[in-house]
DNA sequence: AAGTGGTCTAGACCACAAC
DNA sequence: TTGTGGTCTAGACCACTTG
């Protein structure tokens, strides 16, 4: 190993560490290794979809046993930052995988079969650069007035307009994002963010409410004014808990529902 | 170890196993151990809140190394079936813990602080035994007409009626459940189910929709008829994926929201 | 001091994939 | 055949809790 507070011996190598503070915030070796791997992921040393070095290589690099690297990677895999494939290696997770096509979208057709309705239709209504309002700035950890990109679009499933949503993105990280780009890219928007802007969304939080559609919303979703809609506010984070996208969606739930698993 | 398909050696004990089928559905030793522990949990050998034997004891009992038992327990802990406490032991998880008071309830006040509003008020409107309708029977894996218990109640937070919900429970497992019992018990209803009926809910699935309040619902929740409400249908399972409760809730989301974390 | 879970190591072997 | 992740073991030591 190298730095950080710790105390492990058994190896005879890190035994001479400083051990400065009284409560040096003990963190196990594998957590420190996890942190180092995380740094490399964040720095883009390995890009989404690529393999990372084998456990043996990483063990040699960090001067720890394979088991310790293994435990670090186990946690990264549990957080969906990395995907293990036996016999092949460990890969940086990406939103561009064919399997779970929309990892953050919990709206599913009542039939339960998301494949049956074919690919989602996308219509971008708006894509413009503007200055962050107070609430958008707070959510994205910016200052009021900082540049942001706002996108408004409608998603259509099986021919039915089902989702109306607004996205707000930090202007600096998403320079040059255009309506064409939003509309053209096949596959998840988050996959495009990875490819075009090097921004990978790692986790998100959602606040869900029931609301009544106003006239404009009703028109865009082809429902009656006052119809109940699901309001889903999503804040997505990159590495290190940096918020990178605020999304406010209105979901029709007459033929779809929001599915959640508790444990 | 004892039975099951596998092939592990390194121990010299299980080497003489049958190895009957062509593809004997290989499952690693720790998975088999996990299954055995699961059986003991299900059989009630250790009750919610109690300690289970130490890793060393279990290792001796199953004739495997501590590390193998450890990995089995790791998975059980990840599934919230069991809770580890360093220096004390491993405990059977329970809904009666003071910490996370309502493990399955994702509705939180907009302030974010669930403690600030004090304990939930409960009013049981109905508690009766009846015969399962077709849809209730299907959800609970019963036959139409089988006995079920239905409970209707209103939950109040900070003086405001916020949740109106119906519960359906298999009549056989919940013989003798009364309105008094539902109303009297302090703490989570699921904790009462553990204590009084030996039924422990392990996981659940929810389907969420936005709906408009009808006249009766509006009156009970003190909102205007037609107000948007969150419809939350929850199916809860005990061990071995046996469904044991269907719950249909209507949530007011004017001062609360449904909070979800994605990863 | 004794017991429990938590960490770390080292080495062996298995299952899977690719060359 | 080689290299990857996956499993299993055995033993040492650390951190936390309790008597």
Automatic annotation (TrEMBL), chains A, B:
Keywords: DNA-binding, Transcription, Transcription regulation. It holds the Pfam family GntR. InterPro entries: Bact_HTH_transcr_reg, Chorismate_lyase_/UTRA_dom_sf, Tscrpt_reg_HTH_GntR, UTRA, WH-like_DNA-bd_sf, WH_DNA-bd_sf. GO terms for biological process: negative regulation of DNA-templated transcription. The keyword tRNA processing does not apply. GO terms for molecular function: DNA binding; DNA-binding transcription factor activity. CDD domains: WHTH_GntR. Residues 27-95 form the HTH gntR-type domain. This is GntR family transcriptional regulator. It comes from Caenimonas sedimenti. The lineage of its organism: Bacteria, Pseudomonadati, Pseudomonadota, Betaproteobacteria, Burkholderiales.
């Amino acid at each position: 190993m190298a730095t950080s507070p710790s105390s492990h011996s058994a190896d005879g190598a890190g035994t001479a560490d400083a051990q400065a503070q009284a409560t040096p915030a003990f963190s196990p070796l594998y957590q420190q290794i996890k942190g180092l791997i995380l740094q490399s992921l964040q720095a883009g040393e390995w890009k989404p979809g690529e393999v990372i070095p084998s456990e043996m290589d990483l063990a040699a690099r960090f001067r720890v046993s394979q088991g310790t690297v293994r435990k670090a990677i186990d946690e990264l895999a549990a957080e969906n930052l990395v995907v293990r494939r036996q016999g092949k290696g460990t890969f940086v997770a990406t939103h561009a995988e064919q399997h779970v096509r929309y990892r953050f979208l919990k709206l599913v057709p009542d039939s339960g079969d998301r494949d049956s309705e074919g690919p989602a239709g996308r219509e971008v209504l708006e894509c413009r650069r503007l200055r962050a309002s107070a609430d958008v700035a707070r959510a994205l950890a910016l200052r009021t007035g900082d540049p942001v990109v706002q996108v408004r679009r409608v998603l259509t499933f099986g021919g039915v307009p089902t989702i109306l949503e607004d996205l707000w993105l930090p202007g600096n990280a998403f320079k040059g994002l255009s309506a064409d780009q939003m509309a053209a890219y096949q596959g998840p928007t988050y996959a495009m963010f990875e490819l075009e802007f090097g921004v990978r969304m790692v986790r998100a939080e959602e606040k869900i409410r029931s609301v009544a559609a106003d006239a404009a919303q009703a028109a865009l979703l082809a429902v009656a004014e006052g119809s109940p809609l699901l309001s889903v506010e999503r804040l997505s984070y990159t590495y290190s808990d940096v918020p990178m996208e605020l999304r406010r969606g209105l979901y029709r739930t007459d033929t779809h529902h929001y599915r959640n698993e508790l444990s």
